Automatic annotation (TrEMBL):
This is 4-diphosphocytidyl-2-C-methyl-D-erythritol kinase. Residues 213-288 form the GHMP kinase C-terminal domain. Its EC number is 2.7.1.148. Gene3D superfamilies: 3.30.230.10, GHMP kinase, C-terminal domain.
């Protein structure tokens, strides 16, 4: 059983004040792009997780936890508990999504594991875990997991888990510039709070700009590029100042929009078309402002079953 799952880029990430539970209220416009991990699940004597880079992908596999903290392993245990079975499964993760890069690679793997394990263990004649149930399980695992199940383009509210699909004419063409090492998401949020406190800024209730929704619906890449935004970007730049050089280089090369993806450190650049994306990726790589560059387009579907032979 193999499930393919996409990376995401945050077209808009509005961060509100800290809630009583320690999270922030968010308005998060997710966009799934054609950079995929694959998770293969097969029956085994015990739960085990392995990880490898996808062919041609330069990802920091050493950064993928293989123990009980791995989100895919937690997803498998959650599905098993809901279905009343033992989590006896081998999960083989093949990664192309940057590790700790702000593109929800771990959450994507968790979403793939939810789908794969549900297909392995649920009763096909009387399934207990439909898409709505999997979305609810995903929300228990993390804020980005439900969107990896859904894909496309969607607005996420709350911690990002309450999703509403958004029409997007697309395709939109992207270049992603990866960096050496990752950025801790909790550290970036903490730095965002620190910067606001130091500057005397009171966090406002976040909102989605109407011009962004209009650009998506019209398939207008130039308008979309102008509407991109990320409240976490100043914090990411403070923790990793070198990202400013990467963003500036992409903007100077004619990117329609440039921003840090999520909590970083991956930088996302919106191109006018596929040819522009190819040129942008080539020149960014030559200028040495990124560990690697990769092209993708969006929106694309969420978690998709590729191979059910292991059932």
């Amino acid at each position: 059983m193999t499930v393919r799952v996409p990376a995401k880029v945050n077209l808009w990430l509005g961060v509100g004040p800290v809630r009583d539970d320690g999270y922030h209220d968010l308005v998060n416009v997710f966009h799934a792009v054609s950079l995929f991990d694959e998770v293969t699940a097969a029956p085994a004597d015990a739960l085990a997780v392995t990880a490898a880079a996808a062919p041609g992908a330069r990802v920091a596999i050493e950064g993928v936890p293989l123990g009980g903290d791995n989100l895919a392993a937690r997803a498998a245990r959650l599905v098993a508990a809901r279905l009343g079975v033992e989590p006896r499964v081998a999960l083989a993760i093949r990664k192309a999504i940057p590790v700790a890069g702000g593109m929800a690679g771990g959450s994507a793997d968790a979403a793939a594991a939810l789908v794969a394990c549900a297909r392995l263990w649920d009763d096909p004649a009387d399934p207990k875990l439909d898409l709505d149930a999997l979305l609810a399980l995903g929300a228990e695992l993390g804020s980005d997991v439900p969107f990896a199940l859904l894909g496309g383009t969607a607005v996420g509210l709350g911690r990002g888990e309450r999703l509403t699909p958004v029409p997007a004419a697309g395709p939109f063409h992207w270049v992603f510039a990866t960096a050496d090492g990752g950025l801790s998401t909790p550290a970036v949020y903490a730095e965002c709070d620190r910067l606001r406190s130091a500057e005397g800024v009171r966090a406002a209730w976040p909102h989605e700009p109407p011009e962004l929704a209009a650009a998506l619906a019209a398939g207008d890449a130039a308008a979309l590029g102008a509407a991109l935004g990320n409240d976490l970007q100043p914090a990411a730049l403070m923790l990793r100042p070198s990202l400013r050089r990467t963003l500036d280089a992409g903007a100077a090369l004619g990117a329609l929009g440039a921003l840090v993806s999520g909590s970083g450190p991956t930088c996302a650049f919106l191109a006018a078309d596929a040819e522009h994306a190819a040129d942008l990726a080539r020149v960014l790589a030559a200028e040495g402002v990124a560990r690697d560059t990769v092209r993708a387009h969006g929106p694309v579907p969420g978690a998709t079953v590729l191979d059910a032979a292991a059932e």
